[in-house]
Every structure is written in C-alpha cells, then in structure tokens.
Amino acid sequence: MKKFFLFGISFVVIFATFQVLSGMILTWMHTPNVSEAWSMSGSLPQETVIVGGFSLVSLGMILASAVIAYIISSKIMRLNNNKAELPS
C-alpha cells in the first residue's frame, strides 16, 4: 500500500510539473496578433465555449509521468529495503 501511495503522489507531482512547463512553453512561444483580435471581437459570441479533445501530447505526458513516477517509487522502495537490511 505504501508503494501505491508513493507512486500516486510522485505521479501527480510529475504530471502537474509537466503541465505547468508545457503551458509556460506554449505561452512563451505564442505571439498574439492584437489588431486581428480586435477586429474580430465584434463578431464573436458573448458566451465562451471551451472545445477540445484528448491529444497525443497529453497521452505522451501521462505516459512519461507514469514511467518517471514508477522509476522514482521503485528506487525509493529499494533504498528503504537496503536500509532495513543493514545491521545496526
């Protein structure tokens, strides 16, 4: 059970880190066209509808997070087992 919690916590932390970093990179790379946005603002609807699907990039981040979390949790558990085996 301890191994499951360690994996879960490390997965959530790594996945959140990947999401924040990818958001920062996308924001850094985006160059808005203000004049075009201003001219289009009159014809836009007043309600905001968020549309989007699941992409392969998201799947890649999930898989990378899971692999890294598994590696971290297995190394920590191995370190704990080695400490328990050492004579005091």
Automatic annotation (TrEMBL):
Keywords: Membrane, Transmembrane, Transmembrane helix
Membrane-spanning residues: 5-29, 49-72
Protein name from the UniProt record: Phage shock protein PspC (Stress-responsive transcriptional regulator)
Source organism (scientific name): Alkalibacillus filiformis
